[in-house]
């Protein structure tokens, strides 16, 4: 069976659209850990180490992603790891349009994701 995995789910898709797609057995929905862990308004101006595509959204959309995940609309959390050397992130310029896309830091994502799960959705860890 061919399995279709779509692009990163972000604020542009409506839950109804995702639900219709999920009626097909070969469709899974994913989002990346950084969309669940970070919000646009928390990113300092010019902090190009957070440059990714699609870009990080506001906290409201992050909370909607958590709701969709906890409700079963999102099947998996992926990482979309796109490492680069620090010079490719152009930290001194702070220009998101020129900086290398993708968020490095796979080694800290699980910790950040768990912290957000506890903070945002009240997930209990025992």
UniProtKB/TrEMBL annotation:
Gene Ontology biological-process annotations: purine nucleobase catabolic process
InterPro entries, sorted: DHOase/Allantoinase_Hydrolase, Metal_Hydrolase
Protein name: Allantoinase
CC per GO annotation: cytoplasm
Top-rank lineage group of the source organism: Eukaryota
GO molecular function (one): allantoinase activity
Annotated coiled-coil segments of the chain: none
